[in-house]
Every structure is written in structure tokens, then in C-alpha cells.
Design brief:
It is a single chain. It is globular, with a radius of gyration of 27 Å. The chain folds into 2 domains: 282 residues, FAD/NAD(P)-binding domain (3-Layer(bba) Sandwich); 118 residues, FAD/NAD(P)-binding domain (3-Layer(bba) Sandwich), CATH 3.50.50. With 484 residues, the chain is of the alpha/beta class. The protein has 14 helices and 18 strands. Helix 2 packs across helix 13 and helix 6 packs parallel to helix 9. The longest helix is centred in the C-terminal third of the chain and has 22 residues. Strands 1, 2, 5, 6, 7 and 18 form a 6-stranded mixed β-sheet that branches. Strands 9-16-10-11-12 form a 5-stranded parallel β-sheet, with helices on one face. A 3-stranded antiparallel β-sheet has the order 13-14-15, with no helix packed on it. 27% of the residues lie in helices and 20% in strands.
């Protein structure tokens, strides 16, 4: 293994060898602030900014509602796993450039032997790598900037923003031709809250998507509802923080342990998934829903080592009431009382729930508008996912009613039914970021075709004149050849 005198030498050599990024080729338009606005400055927002830069697309802006870098993204905030759930060998935000990969970054700092010893990437190391990636590649992110409304205006958008400056917030309106929604798991909907929990007070209840003061749960009795990875991670964090008792309640009779999506984790299926007929894509999404979301084995083992962890199977909550600052319930006829309840119940996809999308959500084509399964395979939750195009763009429910929708690209888990992956996570980056960037490039290019055609036909000076080859021109004997 080559040793570098500087930890970033491999990355520096990579940028040197691929050469400088192309100049911005997109003609400016009056009244347009951004060719592309990227909503969300986490791992995918930064990766999109770099990919667009390498495609020669300028006037790109990345915004994030978090007040600063330390509070942006999930990895140091709402993510509570010890290790990423994906293999360490997957291609991430490096855009096919090995010198910018996690492995290169890790080995430059801790050595190849250390990398070989880890089975999956430690969450905090991943956060360190992403921070390095943003700074090393000089990806500017505008923190404290929240998108509140997307207003279509012809073929572009007005972005209504709330910009936080210290203790004050001011409204700003900017314009963009293209939008990429890289805004996380709730980016096309919101937390899934079972009806039985919706009336619980915030002091006694939280969804895993929220910030939770686990230190305050020390010595407390905690209920966790749900049995996917986020539920087990929350239960483990509470136990490690000193909770007196943690009870996890699962609807199913067994914890989901069969990762059905692994059967199509090969290049043919991965690369061509979008080309599958709707019926096959739907059936694969249904198969995943029936099998359930599987927590990693180490997430389960992380809680089962605690004697004060208790697992309830086939135990959905059907009632909850607050009494004496406790949440009381009865499950399978048995009464329980808890100091705090955590819902690890996932997310619902419904564009109408997002205020920034509300103005045109009714025009977005959903899977239920496109595909009607037989009654046995119907699924209301899957039907509410947007039915996306090849560039992960929204499509119109009625042709011609909202042509601007094709300029909004959905890079979040709402793309699951269309693309077969939890889009936004590492597994989707290799395939879907280039697809979105290529579509953005195509659309911007064709929208200004007259300007590009004029550029094609523009006058251009010669690289040299005849004098550099005049003395070498063959002259037949007896014939004068005059070359001025």
C-alpha cells in the first residue's frame, strides 16, 4: 500500500489528474438566481454539488435548514446506530474517483490494516469523512436557510425561503430553473405516527426523527414502538443512557430478518431497475413491505445484552392515556405505565404533507394514478409514492396541467417504488446521482438550444496560417505554385 506524507495526498493527486472542472456552460438568464437549487446539505446535497460542478453546470446553490454544519444531516444528530447499515465497499459520494472515497480517506489516516478490520463503517467516522469531503472539495452550503414554498412561474420557480440570521428570521425570494430534493427521509411526507400516539404530549413522547434527550431518560421506564432499525437504535441509546427499563413493542410475531432486496443486489437488476414493468416494480415493493424492514443483527444484539430490555412480539398498541405524568396502556390484556414513549414507526410518503410542495401536490402523478394492482396486492402506502421519470423527476398527473414538475428531481426515499432502493442512502448514489445530473444537463442544454447553436456557429480564429507548412508543399517540376 502506498504511504502518503500528507493524509490528503491521494485526494490531491486525484483532483490534479482529472484536471480542473469545466467552466459553466449554461447561458445566464435574466431574473434567474440559480440554475439548480439543491434542498438539503447532507451527504447527497454535497455529492450533487460536486457532480454538477464536474458537469460544467454553474450557478448551483445548496441550502440547509440547520443553523450550522454541526447540526446538519443525521449522522451526529438523529442517527443512533453505531455502524452504517450498508457494506463499507459501496460507492458513495466520490463519483467514481477512488481518491475521494471513504476507504482512501480512512486508510490515509488510520492505515489499510485498520480499514480491513472494520466490517461496516462506524457512524462517527462517516460523519468525519463527510465533513472532510465538503471542506476538501469546497462545497458551499447555506445553513439556516429553510425552503417554505416552491412557486412555479412558467418554466422556473420562485423559492420562498426563511433565512435565519442570529435570533432573527427574514423572508427571501430567489429563483431557480431546477430543484433537487435531497431532503431526507421525510422529504416527501413526514413521520408516521400511529393514531394511538397522536394525542400524547411532547413531554412524554417523541418520534425517532426528533431530537431526544436520552440523558433525561436515566432511571426512567421507556416504551419503544416499532421493530425496524431505528426502533432498536433508540432502545439501545436509552439503555446505554441508563434507562431503568426499556420495553420494545413489535406488531409482528417475529422480528423481520429476511433482507428480500438482497436478491436483486447485482448490476443487472441495480442498473436497469427503472426499466422493469410497473407490475414487477410494484410486486417487489409489496414483497419488501410484507417481509418487513430488517434491523442489522448487531442492532438487535446491542439491546439484548441488557437484562432490563424486554421485547414484546405480536403486541401492537391500541390504546394510550396519560395519568400522573405517565403513559398508560394495555397490551394483550396486560397493563403498563411508562415515563416516556418513543415511536420508531417510520415515515409516510404524501407530497401534500409538505408545505413547500402543497401548491402543486395535487398535480403530481402517484403510483395509484399510474398502476392498479389486483385487490390482493393493493397497498395504500405504496400507492401514495410519486411515480417518477428516469431522471427521478416528478411527472404530471394530467399531461399539460403542470409541465414545470419535470424540473423537480426527487432524491429521497419517496423514490423507493420507482427505483427499488431507499434513495438518498449510500446504495443509490452510484446509479441515481449521475442519472439526475445527466437529465439536468440535457434539460438545461435543450432549453437554451438557440444560444448553443449560435455558439456552435460562432466565428473562431484559425490556430495557424499557411506559412507553417508553405515550404513543405510539393511542387511539380516545371510548374510554379504560388502560395501567398
Amino acid at each position: 500500500m502506498t504511504e502518503f506524507t500528507h493524509p490528503d495526498q491521494h485526494a490531491l493527486d486525484t483532483l490534479r489528474l482529472i484536471g480542473p472542472a469545466p467552466d459553466n456552460w449554461v447561458p445566464p438568464r435574466d431574473g434567474i438566481d440559480h440554475n439548480v437549487a439543491i434542498i438539503g446539505g447532507g451527504q447527497t446535497g454535497a455529492a450533487f454539488a460536486f457532480a454538477l460542478r464536474r458537469a460544467g453546470i454553474g450557478q448551483v446553490s445548496v441550502i440547509d435548514a440547520a443553523p450550522d454544519e454541526s447540526q446538519a444531516g443525521i449522522w451526529l444528530n438523529r442517527a443512533r446506530m453505531n455502524k452504517l447499515r450498508t457494506p463499507k465497499t459501496l460507492v458513495g459520494p466520490e463519483a467514481g474517483l477512488p481518491g475521494l472515497s471513504f476507504q482512501a480517506w480512512y486508510e490515509a489516516r488510520l492505515g489499510a490494516a485498520s480499514y480491513a478490520q472494520i466490517d461496516r463503517i462506524p457512524r462517527t467516522r462517516w460523519a468525519e469523512y463527510l465533513a472532510w469531503y465538503r471542506h476538501f472539495l469546497d462545497i458551499p452550503i447555506r445553513y439556516g436557510t429553510r425552503l417554505t414554498r416552491i412557486e412555479p412561474v412558467g418554466e422556473h420557480f420562485r423559492l420562498h425561503l426563511e433565512v435565519r440570521e442570529g435570533a432573527s428570521v427574514r423572508g427571501v425570494v430567489e429563483t431557480a430553473r431546477k430543484i433537487v430534493l435531497s431532503n431526507g427521509v421525510a422529504g416527501n411526507g413526514g413521520p408516521n405516527l400511529p393514531a394511538v400516539l397522536k394525542d400524547l404530549p411532547p413531554a412524554l413522547f417523541a418520534h425517532t426523527s426528533q431530537a431526544i434527550d436520552f440523558a433525561a431518560l436515566r432511571g426512567k421506564s421507556v416504551a419503544v414502538i416499532g421493530a425496524a432499525a431505528s426502533a432498536f437504535d433508540a432502545a439501545a441509546t436509552a439503555l446505554e443512557a441508563g434507562a431503568e427499563q426499556v420495553h420494545l413493542f413489535a406488531r409482528r410475531e417475529r422480528i423481520a430478518s429476511v433482507p428480500v432486496t438482497r436478491t436483486r443486489a447485482y448490476p443487472g437488476a441495480y442498473d436497469n431497475y427503472f426499466q422493469l414493468p410497473d407490475a414487477i416494480r410494484w410486486s417487489q415493493a409489496r414483497r419488501f413491505r410484507e417481509a418487513g424492514s430488517t434491523p442489522p443483527a448487531d442492532a438487535v444484539e446491542r439491546v439484548t445484552r441488557f437484562p432490563n430490555f424486554h421485547l414484546h412480539l405480536g403486541a401492537p398498541w391500541t390504546q394510550a392515556a396519560v395519568r400522573d405524568k405517565h403513559v398508560e396502556t394495555r397490551v394483550a390484556g396486560e397493563p403498563f405505565a411508562f415515563d416516556f414513549v418513543i415511536a420508531g414507526t417510520g415515515y409516510v410518503v404524501d407530497p401534500a404533507l409538505r408545505p413547500e410542495l402543497a401548491e402543486f401536490a395535487a398535480h403530481i402523478r402517484l403510483w395509484r394514478d399510474q398502476y392498479v394492482p389486483n385487490e390482493a396486492d393493493s397497498d395504500e402506502a405504496l400507492g401514495s409514492h410519486p411515480y417518477l421519470g428516469a431522471g427521478l423527476e416528478y411527472l404530471e398527473k394530467v399531461e399539460g396541467a403542470a409541465p414545470y414538475l419535470k424540473h423537480i428531481h426527487v432524491y429521497n426515499p419517496a423514490a423507493f417504488v420507482s427505483f427499488g432502493l431507499p434513495v438518498g442512502d449510500v446504495p443509490s448514489m452510484k446509479r441515481d446521482i449521475p442519472a439526475v445530473v445527466q437529465r439536468i444537463s440535457r434539460d438545461l442544454f435543450l432549453a437554451d438550444l438557440d444560444a448553443h447553436e449560435a455558439r456552435f456557429n460562432d466565428d473562431i480564429g484559425a490556430d495557424f496560417d499557411d506559412s507553417i507548412y508553405a515550404r513543405s508543399v510539393w511542387q511539380r517540376e516545371g510548374v510554379d505554385v504560388d502560395i501567398a
